[in-house]
Amino acid sequence: MPAIASMPPRSSGRSSRIRHERPTKTPAYCGAVALVVVAAAAAVPAVANAANVRTVALKRGLTSVELEVRHKTGPSPPAILLSTAPASLRCSVADYSYVNRERRARFQMRIRCPQARRGARATLVFRAPFLRTFRLRNGVGTVRVEVDKPRGDALPLGRLTTRPRKTGCEVGRSRVQAGSRRFTATARVHCRGLPANAKGVLAVGGLIAADQAAFIGSSARAAAPEAKAAAIRQGCDDPSTFAVGGESVSWKDCHTGPFTLGPWQSQWVGHIGSTPQFQCESGWTRHINAFDTPVAWLTIGRFAVDLVTDPSDAWAWSWKLGLVTNWQFRGDVTFWWKYRCFRVNRSVRG
Known about the structure:
Number of strands: 23
Radius of gyration: 23 Å
Strand order of the largest sheet: 1-2-15-10-13-12
Largest sheet: 6 strands, antiparallel
Helix content: under 10%
Strand content: over 45%
Number of helices: 1
Distance between the termini: 59 Å
Shape: flat
């Protein structure tokens, strides 16, 4: 299947247990399995070569955190375990984001700690997501996630896929409810034509309080996610001109696409290069020469194809090795390819 993605809780993991419950076989259910997973909190289980620990100082009031980390969890979101010292601080997370572009991830967070004193610190442990595997059967079922999350507006992240990958499973309606300390999400999943012994794989992560717990199970209610109108338009922006010394170079940013991913969705986009869809119109070029226009090359030279989102504040997604994934529990994300075109003008001196 195209990868049904995005199912996260705030959990940590002193211990975990998996329990399968056999649901009543209603006509709507058609035999799909219900999954119940409980991940208790406290000590973090050891994960070889996956943990990355960062510590930041906390101010009284609002602290802004911005970190660049190497993304090590593939198309799945990392679990980001948050703790404070002293532990008695009643901090709340105003917002956070984790965006991965080809193994280079940027984490941003705003955390408010009214009682923080000098020496107060927050510890963030970036580690592998919590994985749960369960049996799949043909039919319609619902998966539910309940999480005791950190105070504030932070939501969990996640990804749901199947083994084997190419199966006839689709995620339909979903519903999200978020309180100050509790998060609940449900998603309707329909599978058909499954091979024998097909499995579902759930990766849960995102910003997790290191002393909280998560519950993942079955439910029956769902609703369609909201869609947002696109603000980026197809084609190129009006050109601008960079002129300094003897150099004069016009440039413009161009967009092509788009494609939209809802919660729980991934899409294979392949390896991006100088394909026809990223070509410039006649008289314009994708590259300028560092020897002919060295200042422009350093200042406005952007030669790679990038992936941008609408809304621009989409806060959790991944682009890695040709696979794009929306990790968010709610809200569609529209993706556009962005590239730059150049035109070298006559020398200013000449």
